[in-house]
Please model this.
Amino acid sequence: MENKTTRNLYTIPYVIWVAFFVIAPILLVLYYSFQDLEGNFSLTNYRNFFTPIYLEMTLSSFWYAFLITLITLLFAYPIAYLLTKLKHKQLWLLLIIVPSWINLLLKAYAFLGIFGTYGMANKFLETIGIGSKQLLFTDFSFVFVSVYIFIPFMILPIFNALDKLNPTYLDAANDLGASRWTTFRRIVFPLTIDGVKAGCQITFIPALSLFMLTRLIAGSQVITLGTAIEQQFLVTQNWGMGSTIAVFLIIFMFIIMFATGTKRRRARG
Amino acid sequence: MKQLIRLAVVIIAVSAILLVTISRLNASQGYSGGNTLTVYNWGDYVDPAVIDEFEKETGITVVYETFDSNEAMMTKIQQGGTSYDVAVPSEYTIEKMKEEDLLLPIDHSKIPNLKNIDSRFMDLPFDPENKYSVPYFWGTVGIVYNTKQIDGIEFDSWEDLWDPSLKNKIVLIDGAREIVGMGLNSLHYSLNDTDPEHLQEAYDKLVSLKPNVRALLGDENKLLMASGEVSIGITWSGDASEIMAENEDLDYVVPEEGSNLWFDNMVIPKTAKNIDAAHEFINFMLDPKVAAQNTEYVSYSTPNKEALQYMPEEMVNDERFYPPPELTDRLEVYENLGKENLARYNELFLKFKME
Model:
């Protein structure tokens, strides 16, 4: 019996946390989303969301989040693979993780200088003969900086998955005459797919609601759902509309989590 | 288990030491309670030396907190739990705060220095007879441009921004009222216009400006203009004078079609705890010498007529920042348009940004 009471005791912090910081805020957001500007109950906000302007914004958010996730993955997978082959892999991994401890805004401000007309990036382009380009406030720089920010978060789960991979499988594949590409396609990738999914989740979902970067790096010319929520709350003070966008963002997140969620493994035979 | 307990003891001990140190430090800086006054102001919007002087003269301890938008400030006061004694909102926010009953009336008998304020800036429509507010700084919205990088365009008119040679050169303020207002002004409409047709026209006009727009930014633009990275910016006069002090190639113009005239004002929020000290503070800030010193630091335009004589002449005679009444008459003050119209402004602005 005592076992049960201690277990109940342990659940208290969890229940309190979930109730106050997960369920209550979601309920509040839902409640506000049904209020119009005058504070009456209405569905106007939901109707508004299905007008071209918000749909377009949702689509462009998804497009950028997709692009960012894809490029991040293309860089992160080979890096993670390389890391598992190195001698002091934990040290090398740490070197990649450490910059992610620095606040995102500080890094964004640093990029203002690096990408500027007289910044280092342009000096480099000039030296190699391409000539200076406008880098700041373009789609390119937005995607670049976002990828830079998300790469460590993508590497970590993939690294863990690759590191856990049993090397005898690779030897077996090799012995049975599989080419390296076949081994990767049929053995390595399927066995690390959970890491890839976790990495994509951790990149795609925050990328949907990035908002300070859209102003600092993209010069407000890229509008994500996160930017729109910020505007509705702080500028228009239309909490209803802001909450409605947030409701849709939450729905999208659940769909993505569901789609990329790890299915329970079948018992190994 | 033993290890766990040891760890817990260490953490508690370290926390206790930190707590004691912090309270010691605070005490040595004078945050000891007693007669304190909490001022809630925009960032970098007062000369810290002036605050020190006030503390020395009155023995009141000032706690200074900052905000970066009218809306954020109002939300915080509205939600309560704060005890700001003096806040500095802009004029259209004062209208809103009055509506929401968030302000205390100001006792003019406790503020003899009110006589120093230029009558041009008293008794304005947003607060008749200055019942709730006292002007702090004022200014305009206009165009800052780099005279070295832009040749042959003087920006006397908003229309100049549409010049095809300015492709990808302009940085706008990330603010719906300012930018939609600019669109309306360029069509010779009022920047408080709410006629949907006029707004649509202004929107179309703004969209045609988009090829020339490089970005929409907030305070970051000050940095980029000062360094020469950006050659044209739409901004507030105070920010303009600040960056012009850093980069001599910059110049500031208020286009002739008209623009925004704005006022930041000291008010006493309903949540105030130390109302007497609040009056004392407002009166102190209106003292000509104090106002002059503060203005030199902040570099916005002061409404204090008596302060002008204590300020450097080139500052006072600069018509870009102290425009004559003929010009200010052409400018408009933002009116509170109501939530519905503000939402429409914002939607247009959002659409403009996505174009």
